[in-house]
Amino acid sequence: MRSTAAVPSGTPTPKDAEPVQGGPSRVPHPCPQAAPHSGLDDRIARFATIWGRAIFPFTATSLTRPEFEQHLVPLTRTLAEALHARPFDAAVAQQVGAELVTVHCTDPEALAGTLGVVESYLVLYCGPDGVGVEGAEEYRSRCARLQHQIAAGFARALRERTLREQEAIARSALTARIDAQQALHASEERFRAVFEGAAIGIGIADLEGNVLEVNDALLQMFGGMGGHVRGRNISEWGHPDDAPQVWRMYGELVRGERESYRVEKPYYRHDGTVLWTNLTVSLLRDTEGRPQYQLALMEDTTERRLLNLRLRYEATHDALTGLPNRTLFFERLEKALSGGGTRFGLCYLDLDGFKAVNDSLGHSAGDRLLVEVADRLQSCATGPGEVVARLGGDEFVALTTGPDTQEKVTELAVRILSALSAPIRIEGRELSVRGSIGIVEGPAGERTPAEVLRSADITMYRAKAAGGSRFEFADAEADARAITRHGLTNALPAALERGEFFIEYQPLVHMHDGTVRGAEALVRWEHPQYGVLGPDRFIPLAERTGLIVPLGRWVLEESVRQARTWQREHGGSPLRVNVNLSPTQLHHPGLVADTVAVLENAGLAPGALCLEVTESALIGADDDLLEPLRRLADLGVDIALDDFGTGYSNLANLRRLPVSVLKLDRSFTKGMQQQPANPVDVKIVEGIVALAHSLELAVTVEGVETGAQAAQLRALGCDTAQGWYYARPGAPDRIHALTLADAIPTPG
Amino acid sequence: MISTFGSDRCPTSRTTATDYGLETEMERPTWAPPGIDISVPSVSRIYDYYLGGSHNFEVDRQAARRAMEFMPGLPKIMQANRAFMRRAVRHAVAQGVTQFLDIGSGIPTFGNVHEVARAASPDARVVYVDHDPVAVAHSRAVLEGDTQTGVVSADLRKPQDILTAAEVERLLDFDRPVALLLVAVLHFLEDADDPYGAVAELRDALPPGSLLVLTHASYEGMPLSEEVASGTVGVYRDIRNPLVMRTREEVARFFDGFELVDPGVVSMPNWQPGGLADPQDGDMPEDPYAFSGYGGVGRKA
């Protein structure tokens, strides 16, 4: 295998030339006889072929060899003409040398080959025909001089070309470098612009934490030039609120164990204020991958954070008192209840009579009262784990947690009531504030916050119902009752709509002759779940929710219509009907008009209706309250004072009231059930009857259960009676039957 | 014609942002050029040296001489490349294709595509693409004022940069066939650079009737043992321009989506030898080094 290109791999074999063997130093020897006989052009072509074969292996041309040889033909002609020229001018041959360089024969071997071919064949192929030895010498001399000039021309052209190319490539390298520098400069300008103009703070520090470079945005975050950022060390920027992992991640980053981290981090500015940032730190490595710098990108979140804190505060605090609100309290309570093994105690406070303050002194006074109360409550719950909140209106809660909340919560409730006991001075008035507290205490982890609060709420109402200004402890039974009450309250409106109420009538018997004089209408609730419920189970609820007004109107309508029915069916002396009025109805502005309308609609005379009002509802009643009753009385409606004797009556006041009947409370008649009757009770009843009669008031007794009782009361002068001795409450047709029987007393 | 691809082998080039006042390594953005360092050998200047040119510096010549210690016939391989390309360009013009996209064009020297093409068709248009900034600068200097040629600084590994270059859009009409020249350039793309993907992406941009003119280095056909020849491969690796030898089969895969023009993927001198068909020349065969590697021309259907 041939392993080098330095040796020509083939030899030209012109028919008239000997094969060329070996390198350029061994030039071919064409057959001398052949050349002279050919025409000059033909001989020039043959010379070019020999020449081409000799030097083609040393060219870098992309031409094919025949193409390449075509380039040599004019050069051969130049040499042939120079050989014969008179005068002889060897310098012409320099062009030939130069032309070789032009056709990329720059390898020195190409020159050697050329000179060898010229030496051997130029005179032979292109020399004169038939010259003598002397002439031959002349041509050999000319040929040698032409070779010298070819070599000179080649060398000069190659030198010039080399210099030209060297200069060209150097200039190109320079141009490329300048272009690159300009592009790099432009690119760095852009980077610089990004760095300087970025809204985000950018800082670069070495791995020891020395701050090397910061941009303007970062400088501004730290308070401008006075912020003393440059030249500081990152380790100086610790802050108590740093997240625990911050410095661990920092250490990992500078050791090259972490590429980046992102945290929320506070900094102290030089002036002591705090800068909050979203910080991203990245590790910059060199080309070999070794950690080199750390790059920090910082976003100032101080304002956003403050805003968030403020929004959070506003969302979790009561605007009036500044106390935590329901939301925050629920969170705290939830936390307290989720902790295992600890206990909690909760005081649920509702001010007694706060509505009266609001109504009489106005809301701004009410607000000031609440603020003062909040301040006092706050001072009561200063222990660890204690918190006070305002749930809304005049409802506050105080929470205590810990292992011994049984004692602590009682102490807390005592402190609260005591704190409230001192009068509060508002607008020159001394207001005494009272409150009712419901306490729930127990182990954490058993109940939800909502359950605890509901229990506390229920218990608070119990405290309030027990007279207020006190605290009560929650108990399951009371809660259950309250929960039932709650359910009934919610069911009331629908019950009225669905007609679940009905009325029973209890006869009122004339004591002198035993005739049925009328009946008291008693409302019942046919509850789908609990069965028939008496008025004591739901009237207070209806009172509280205001449903008493429509319910009371319905009872009135039903009763009046019933009375009218009796009247039509019974004929003779009309049966009266007694209907109870609740305190709320008493205050209702439509009372007189509604009553009149009901009577007119039914066609019942006012005298057939008796409205019963409890004595307690009229205690301290002023003229405004009594006015509607007076008007009704003027119309002929009887007004009975119910439950008389239970409410510290001001007997002298009786004169002012537009009542015509006193209904003696059953507690007075109880003492007469046995024989002999309680003499004190007898004296009292006797006195009341005398008093009533002196005021021209009729007396009705309730709860008559025995014949002896009835006889005794009749003897004492009571006018009308009611009770199981005569009849239990019942359906309206039973009254009709009783009347027909003309009031023969029936055993209860 | 060996391109300078590979003078910047790092997948993500980095530059030094010195005017930040410190030596910060930053990811080099696409608009920033690679640095110019003529103390590093350039394959395009080495190629020029093989072809007898003087567009080179001592570092280039040292590398070239070292490579030639293992493979003395390197210049003959380059010459065969040039000759193959010349015949292929003429073939293209003969087929009516007068637009040329020469990727990896290197330092302009004699027998450039535009010279060969224009000799055959005066209105031929040529865009030269290289990523060696010196080669690009030199090409621009040489071709200054020639409105039918353009020079683009771009990388074969990012074909979209080439296809969307302003000079390409100005000079080449992709509604008419284009001859894509990838002469002695693909062997500077390692498999990780996805050379097949790059060729496919370029192919997809070419209209039907377009040609792919391709040569590639290979151990096959070389008058040397692979052991000896690998010394040259080592030299290129040392100058951080690894030379990837591929088999004939692997080279033929670049023509996926093309119909091979006769005689297919062959040693370069055997591709439509033309003038050497002269029976006179039977006794003077090509230099054996010329048969190293493969060349071929494909036509997109």
Task: Based on the model shown, name its key terms.
heterodimer, A: 748 residues, alpha/beta, Globin-like, Beta-Lactamase, Alpha-Beta Plaits, 5-stranded antiparallel β-sheet, 19% strand, rod-shaped, disordered C terminus, B: 301 residues, Rossmann fold, 10 helices, disordered N terminus
What does the model show?
- The complex is a heterodimer of chains A (748) and B (301).
- Chain A has 748 residues and is an alpha/beta fold.
- Chain A has four domains: 35-165, Globin-like; 201-306, PAS domain (Beta-Lactamase, 2-Layer Sandwich); 317-474, Reverse transcriptase/Diguanylate cyclase domain (Alpha-Beta Plaits), CATH 3.30.70; 488-738, Alpha-Beta Barrel (TIM Barrel).
- Chain A has an eight-stranded mixed β-barrel, surrounded by four helices. Chain A has a five-stranded antiparallel beta sheet with strand order 2-1-5-4-3, sandwiched between helices. In chain A, strands 7-8-6-11-12 form a five-stranded mixed beta sheet, sandwiched between helices.
- The termini of chain A are far apart.
- The relative contact order of chain A is 0.04.
- Chain B is of the alpha/beta class.
- Chain B has a domain at 74-224 and 244-300: Vaccinia Virus protein VP39 (Rossmann fold, 3-Layer(aba) Sandwich).
- Chain B is built from ten helices and nine strands.
- Chain B has helices at residues 43-50, 58-70, 74-94, 113-120, 133-143, 159-163, 166-171, 195-205, 226-238, 248-253; strands at 14-17, 24-27, 99-103, 125-130, 149-153, 179-183, 211-216, 258-260, 294-300.
- In chain B, the strands form two sheets. A seven-stranded mixed beta sheet of chain B has the order 5-4-3-6-7-9-8. A two-stranded antiparallel sheet of chain B has the order 1-2.
- In chain B, helix 5 links the parallel strand 4 and strand 5 (149-153).
- Chain B is globular.
- Classes of the chains: A alpha/beta (748), B alpha/beta (301).
- The interface between A and B is large, with 59 and 69 residues.
